[in-house]
Amino acid sequence: MSNNSDPFDSHSNDPIERDNRAAAKITDPDDAGEPAAVAEQMRCLQAMARERDAIIDSSSDGLFVCDNHATVIRINPASERIHKIKADAIVGRNMVDLIEQGFIDRSAALEAIQKRATVSLLQKKDHRKLISTGTPVFDDSGELIRVVVSERDITEIDTLQRCLEEEQAIKDQLQTQLAEMQQRLIQTQKIIARSPNVVKLLKQALKVSKADSSVLITGESGVGKGLVANLIHKNSHRAEKPLIRINCGAIPESLIESELFGYEKGAFTGARAGGKPGHLELADGGTLFLDEIAELPLSAQVKLLRFLEDGRVNRLGGTQARQVNARILAATHRDLKQMVGEGTFRHDLYYRLNVIPLVVPPVRERKECLLPLLRYYVDYFARKLGSPKRLSHAAVESLMAYPFPGNVRELMNICERAVVMSELEVIALEDLPRDVVSHAGDAGATPSVQWPPQMTLEQILQSVERALLLEATQKYRNQSQIAAALGISQPTVARRMKKYGLMASLTIRER
Ligand SMILES: Nc1ncnc2c1ncn2[C@@H]1O[C@H](COP(=O)(O)OP(=O)(O)OP(=O)(O)O)[C@@H](O)[C@H]1O
């Protein structure tokens, strides 16, 4: 290839060529009287030149070497391959001519000479994409003596990159579809999830539903631990099989083992003649949800641990263990770790159950869920009662200020009671339990409006309505939010705000 075709013209005034000619002369073995040190130096120079040639020729990137006028003096085998041309056909030709003849569309060598700096550019060659980088070489006096152009064929990298981007796009699309499907699933299961912490929890629950590992669901009483267990089961490959729920706190200690593991006939006095399968066996192929797991007696904890280790169930009074394939979900409102420290819960069982921990936040930490939960349950009980109901603004304010110590279950009870107790369609403060109203502080109080005695009731009501709307414009960002908070439609909000000249105050806030 190129090093066979000597790139250096012996008559040239090129500075590098001059040095090479001098070296060739000195290293001539016939050159009599040559000092040994100079000969050694020349051998080194020749070795370096061979090394340089080997580097240039073995490079997988194409390399062009041009003189200071952009005339090609050498190209390596990679460039021959890229351009499908022999070095002889290109050496000695100038880049300007090569562009004119359509061999290339741009020259990094020419641009590097022009700018006296390294230049990178993208070239198209026979449907292929090349990145060319022209690097100028200067001598000690700052004179530009060479330009080395490296070329890389990026067609394949580019194609791969495009494939990757397409795959990423498909993945993103699938993920969006999955998220939408999950959202629909959550909605069909009537789970209200607006707060980021609840959304995150449900995403985690949907993710773990695909595995078979044990899950420990913790959270205060009535926060929805059972709901999460249900979601996990319904979304798992076990969905067609039963979800068996057992409340470990509700079963007398003396019966819990027989309930969980079953018994053989005659296992104890009062035992059924034919024996009885336990909840674990009933959950075979499905899921066993152990609610209030902290209440499980230590003796039953040992047996449960054994089952988690070998998947075998030994009925009470039985001699033969049965293989059972049940996934275990457990829940508690107690601090199991603390119980382990106190010695009331086995640490080995705790670690077995806690493979995937899920924490359900209390309602007070789900501010964004509160109003949708209230509306959802008011609608739910109103539908059951067969008469439409909605919460008044004051009732909403009171409920929003209430800490719901008993969580979602208490919220449901309050909504049910309010729906049943209210005589009118709009649920008023009086329909709420006293402790809910007492928490409201100023929030539930009627806005204080001063009026002179000569005002009519109609005028007073309008004055109150205007004050309320004005307050709402300070609090909410748009008419829809105001409508939602006041329990009226958005067109009604618009009409009344116009009537009271309040449009400007909201427009300013909306900005
Ligand atoms: N995000 C939610 N959306 C709608 N309803 C909910 C939500 N979370 C909980 N609930 C409802 O609250 C009630 C209590 O939920 P659940 O029984 O799952 O709570 P829990 O934490 O298991 O209670 P406990 O500690 O007493 O066992 C259920 O009727 C459930 O449907």
TrEMBL record:
> Which keywords belong to this entry?
Aromatic hydrocarbons catabolism, ATP-binding, Coiled coil, DNA-binding, Nucleotide-binding, Transcription, Transcription regulation
The residue ranges of the PAS domain are: 48-96
Note down the stretches annotated as region Disordered: 1-36
* CDD domains, sorted: AAA (cd00009), PAS (cd00130)
Task: List each coiled-coil range.
Answer: 157-191
| Entry-linked SMART domains | AAA, PAS
Cross-referenced Gene3D superfamilies, in alphabetical order?
A: 1.10.8.60, Homeodomain-like (1.10.10.60), P-loop containing nucleotide triphosphate hydrolases (3.40.50.300), PAS domain (3.30.450.20)
Q: Boundaries of each Sigma-54 factor interaction domain copy? A: 191-420
Family annotation (InterPro entries): AAA+_ATPase, AAA_lid_NorR, Homeodomain-like_sf, HTH_TyrR, P-loop_NTPase, PAS, PAS-assoc_C, PAS-like_dom_sf
List the biased-composition ranges (Basic and acidic residues). Answer: 8-22
Per the UniProt entry, what are the Gene Ontology biological process annotations, in alphabetical order?
Answer: regulation of DNA-templated transcription
Protein name per the record: HTH-type transcriptional regulatory protein TyrR
Gene source species: Desulfosarcina ovata subsp. ovata
